[in-house]
Design a protein that fits this description.
13-stranded mixed β-sheet; alpha/beta; elongated; 7-stranded mixed β-sheet; binds calcium ion; 8 helices; single chain; binds uridine-diphosphate-N-acetylglucosamine
């Protein structure tokens, strides 16, 4: 099966300079999620039609193995597919078409859709879903139950606008039938574009078998056309992730007030308090407490039994087991040993204006409240810093030392 992803549009309704498909959701462009869904259903190296700010989109696609096809002028979805004609020269099986702004369809839905298409022996199948509010989507028009056409919002009659079954924009086409139908579509519609959706009525009239399968649930059919849609999709992705973690024994006190990116790992028995933001790739151990108001950023690993409390941000850091960072702390580029306690207001000053530097804190260290650790800096096992100390680079600290002051130095131990 060959796939064509349509990603040439500007995304006018986003009111943004960035091409629509490059808008990030949890740091990854929407288009990246689309390619992942396809890969998840076994579709590799799709053709991606690009146009608006093509070079930016091409640069994003390059390492991902997708093949870019240029649509110089954006004259509609039908025109976009025509641009991939040459690329399809050697294609044998059915052609899958996918809009670049539809990241929520699940791979299993795509598999079910492929199976339904095969079984029905249709020349073209459309993946549809029921939307409570179908505004803006193409409507699936049926006559006596038989699928006859897709009508776009602007071109629909008031009656057609009441139809709730909508086109997700995902199709499977027989290649020859697709190419022939594309020759026949015109621009006679309110937008003056070549609509891919017009092929349905044409093919139906010519006696081909066209089918619409309502196999997607409403949330999967959510496309991204506006900033509001982008926020809805972000929320939905987070909800899906949180549900997966809940099924594995993670407690979320306020799932609606928490954002968890796809691809986060959280161990059993961990509690996430309200208002946390957890980015992609973060790994949290078992029986931890996170938040309220914690931000865990990329490259962060938290060991079992640790507490990352209120107003704590952790970035690119490895935190050991049973570490306490309960209040008002920033850990950036830090490595923290097991059993260490970070007092309220501990800050790693990791950026000198040019470079980021590492802070290494040993096991069972006590960092006093309001300590600033100016990286690169190393605090050995069992050491302590006094409240308000500023530990500067190259400070010589031995195991078990107590350092205090600004800049911090070891407290001399009294001879007995
Ligand atoms: C389209 C469908 C609509 C469907 C909806 C589902 C048409 C005419 N309408 O409407 O039936 O319900 O998707 O989300 O197909 N694109 C190009 N080149 C172009 C125009 C668009 O590559 O010349 C790309 C866009 O980048 C986008 C996708 O095609 O990723 C869909 O285009 P968009 O303008 O979002 O179509 P909708 O109005 O959402
Ligand atoms: Ca769209």
């Amino acid at each position: 099966m060959e796939a064509i992803v349509l990603a040439a549009g500007k995304g006018t309704r986003m009111c943004s300079e960035l091409p629509k498909v490059l808008h990030p959701v949890f740091g990854k462009p929407v288009l990246g999620y689309v390619l992942e869904v396809l890969a998840g259903a076994g579709v590799k190296d799709p053709y991606v039609v690009i146009g608006y700010k093509a070079e930016e989109v091409r640069a994003y696609l390059k390492p991902l193995g997708a093949v870019a096809v240029l649509q110089r002028e954006q004259k509609g979805t039908g025109h976009a597919v025509m641009m991939a004609k040459a690329a399809l020269k050697n294609a044998q099986g059915p052609i899958l078409i996918w809009p670049g702004d539809m990241p929520l369809v699940k791979p299993e839905t795509l598999k079910a859709f492929c199976a339904a298409h095969q079984k029905s022996r249709a020349h073209v199948s459309v993946l549809s879903c029921d939307q409570e509010n179908p505004f803006g989507y193409g409507r699936i028009v049926r006559e006596e139950g038989h699928f006859t056409a897709i009508r776009e919002e602007l071109d629909a009659t008031p009656e057609e606008r009441r139809i709730r079954e909508v086109n997700t924009g995902v199709y499977l086409f027989d290649k020859k039938v697709l190419l022939a139908a594309l020759e026949k579509i015109g621009q006679d519609n309110r937008k003056g574009e070549y609509y891919l959706t017009d092929t349905i009525e044409i093919l139906r009239r010519e006696g081909y078998c066209v089918e619409a399968f309502p196999l997607a649930i409403a949330e999967e059919g959510q496309g991204i056309n506006s900033q509001k849609d982008l926020a809805n999709v972000t929320k939905k992705m987070s909800e899906r992730e949180i549900a997966k973690h809940q099924d594995r024994g993670v407690t979320f006190m306020a799932p609606e007030q928490t954002f968890v990116a796809p691809g986060v790992k959280i161990g059993k028995g961990t509690t996430v308090y309200p208002w946390c933001f957890i980015e992609a790739g973060v790994e949290i151990g078992a029986k931890c407490e996170i938040g309220p108001f914690a931000k865990l950023r990329r490259g962060t690993v938290i060991g079992d039994g640790s507490v990352i409390g209120s107003f704590v941000e952790v970035n690119r850091s490895r935190v050991g087991k049973k570490v306490s960072a309960k209040h008002l702390t920033y850990l950036g580029d830090a490595v923290i040993g097991d059993g260490t306690n970070l007092g309220a207001g501990t800050i790693t000053a990791n950026f000198d204006g040019k470079k980021k530097h590492q802070t290494v804190i040993g096991k069972h260290v006590m960092i006093g409240s309001n300590t600033v650790l100016v990286a690169p800096v190393r605090i050995p096992d069992g050491a302590k810093t006094g409240a308000g100390s500023v530990v500067i680079p190259k400070t010589k600290i031995k195991k078990g030392d107590v350092v205090v002051g600004v800049p911090a130095r070891p407290v001399l131990k009294k001879k007995r």
